[in-house]
Amino acid sequence: MNAKRIALSLAAVVGLLVVAALMVVVLGLTGALDRPTTSHPVQRSALGAARPTRDLLALLDQPGPVELETVDSADWAVDRSGLVNLGHPTAKAAGLVDGDEPIQVFFHALRHPTKGLYIVDTGIEVAMRDAPEKSAVQGIVAGAMHMERLKVHAPLGEWLAKQPQALAGVLLTHLHLDHVTGMADVPANTPVYTGPGEAAAASPLNLLMKPNTDRALAGKAPISEWAYAPESEGLFDAAVDVFGDGSVWALWVPGHTPGSTAYLVRSTKGPVLLTGDASHTRWGWEHDVEPGTFTQDGPRGVRSFKRLRDFAAAHPDVEVRLGHQH
Length: 326
Ligand SMILES: [Zn+2]
Known about the structure:
Layout: H1 3-30, E1 42-44, E2 49-50, H2 54-59, E3 67-79, H3 80-83, H4 89-93, E4 100-112, E5 116-120, H5 126-130, H6 139-144, E6 151-152, H7 156-161, E7 167-171, E8 192-194, H8 206-217, E9 223-225, E10 239-241, E11 248-252, E12 261-267, E13 270-274, H9 282-286, H10 298-314, E14 319-321
Parallel strand pairs: 1-9, 5-7, 7-8, 8-9, 13-14
Antiparallel strand pairs: 2-10, 3-4, 3-6, 4-5, 10-11, 11-12, 12-13
This protein binds zinc ion.
């Protein structure tokens, strides 16, 4: 082939790539590439009742019945630009730039005197440490999520095997993959709860993520969605009293995902707020800088983030545990 023909062929290839890239952008903008987070079955939660958020305030100062334990299931590192809005003036002034941010993948154990053992989020499954080829997260997604950076300390299954009590339920903050990575270790019939719209939340990214999320939930109970009753003037968008005794509250804090849920636990050592990914980092929380590009709905996320911070500021006795950092 002479130089002119090579140049022409290259031009044709580049042209085709440009057309393909444009098609992806156009299809993405029209929603044609959107896929739900999971096709796992969903139902309305039979557990918990919607309750005005102000009712929580009346109980906040009373000692609670729940023993709470936060477990570092794994250390990990992800892009800082996803976790913290680097475009925020405070982040710019602090000189924050993108790069690997060390984080933890947690689960929280709630031991209720009569309701039993529940967990918030699921940490990491045993297979991810011992047999990654058998874990729910596979292929391109495992590569893109840099699962090789994961240092597993306490996989959920190993931890559950040491507990004298059976697991009564899983309370999820949301359905992102790094919050369901322990689901494979959850016994099959254990009820699973999350906020409304989590399974249906659509994005082109789910073309890749969904098979992994579906694998993590395969064979498990249907996802029960909290029956929130939206409030216009409340502390949060809505709340559910999970056990009906005011000890554990699901708080609707949408933005990161449509059904993002924080949990307020009235523990034996005082009230504890589990923010979920409404705030991933310690720095972001302390400097009033909301999460970055991992958030699906930015303005809604900022609103929920501010509501959580306002609540914590008004009630300094509430201990705050963030989504991915101590
Ligand atoms: Zn998330």
